What we know:
It is a single chain. By secondary structure, the protein is mainly α. Among the domains are: 1-28, no CATH class; 102-225, no CATH class. Helix content is 58%, strand content 5%. It is built from eleven helices and three strands; from the N terminus they run ααααααααβααββα. The chain has helices at residues 2-5, 7-13, 17-35, 67-83, 102-106, 110-131, 135-148, 152-167, 175-190, 200-208, 224-227; strands at 172-173, 212-216, 219-222. β2 and β3 form a beta hairpin. The longest helix is centred in the middle third of the chain and has 22 residues, at 110-131. It is elongated. The model has no long low-confidence stretch (mean pLDDT 80). Residues 99-231 form the SBF1/SBF2 domain. This is MTMR5 protein. InterPro entries: SBF1/SBF2.
Amino acid sequence: QLVAYEVKRMKAEEGNKQKILRHIKELAEKLYKNENPYPAVAMHKVQKPTEGCHLRLHQRPFPRLDEGTVQWIIDQATAKLQTAPPAVKAEKKCMVPSGPPIAAILERNGNALANSARRLEVVRNCISYVFENKMLEAKKLFPAVLRAMKGRAARHCLTQELHLHVQQNRAVLDHQQFDFVIRMMNCCLQDCTAMDEHGIAAALLPLVTAFCRKLSPGITQFAYSCVQEHV
């Protein structure tokens, strides 16, 4: 319903904190009422006496109440409440129009998307520089790459790019290249969450057994020996 009806309103509210807060409060109330459809205490309405009623003549005296009868009525009502089935809110089904195209909402997040695209570009460029042995350029971009690893998209991008280089038979690295690749992998794994375990961490497994460097004739060090401490 928000997507269908409220996009114009949300656009109009941009930059006005008070309007946004009022809108959030309204939403919160709707959600609360949806979760708690029945008020905890049912209020009984007692009619007020009309104006000037005390001036009327021939007022009938209020009848005496029989304590036993009153108690019996209360007991009956209590018993009924205890045996009554729990009240269930009947679910109303309704058709909600699809609303404006999703692009209309994404316009507002345009900057975030542009930033995300820039971060991925930085990761790709840095990896390219490393494999082209342009170490000075790679060093300049490296801090930005490590910051980008906070985002899942950048971590995914790293695994894809490294995979491409393995396919091109560029897995045997010199010492500097090896150091850069290991630092990126470590940073990527450090920022991984449990949700990434079967995605990004799993995608790195074949890569860490592929990338290596020659330490001396006949002795090869593979990347997994430097990243195997991660949970």
